[in-house]
UniProtKB/TrEMBL annotation:
Pfam families per the UniProt record, alphabetical: Ribosomal_L29
Single annotated GO MF: structural constituent of ribosome
Keyword Transport: no
Entry protein name: Large ribosomal subunit protein uL29
Gene designation per UniProt: rpmC
Lineage of the species this protein comes from: Bacteria, Candidatus Kaiseribacteriota
Keywords: Ribonucleoprotein, Ribosomal protein
Organism: Candidatus Kaiserbacteria bacterium RIFCSPHIGHO2_01_FULL_56_24
Example GO BP: translation
Keyword Ribonucleoprotein attached: yes
HAMAP family reported in the protein's UniProt record: Ribosomal_uL29
Length: 67
């Protein structure tokens, strides 16, 4: 994953969409078969959370700066 602190908001939102799609494919792919790499799902969820955290911190920083 690219360094999220260097990405702009649009890039972060695109990354969230891609990660969510990967997680969806992982979940539905795993439902019908044996699990091959269980860590992959956890890693995807954590990456999504990291991106949301970065977006929230930028939002709070801009509000603090403006208000």
């Amino acid at each position: 994953m690219a360094d999220i602190k260097k990405m702009d908001i649009e890039g972060l939102q695109k990354e969230i969409v891609e990660k969510r799609e990967s997680l969806r494919k992982f979940r539905f792919g795993e439902a019908g078969s044996r699990s091959r790499n269980v860590k992959e799902g956890r890693t995807l969820r954590r990456d999504i959370a990291r991106i949301f955290t970065e977006i929230k911190s930028r939002d709070l920083a801009s509000k603090k700066k403006n208000g």
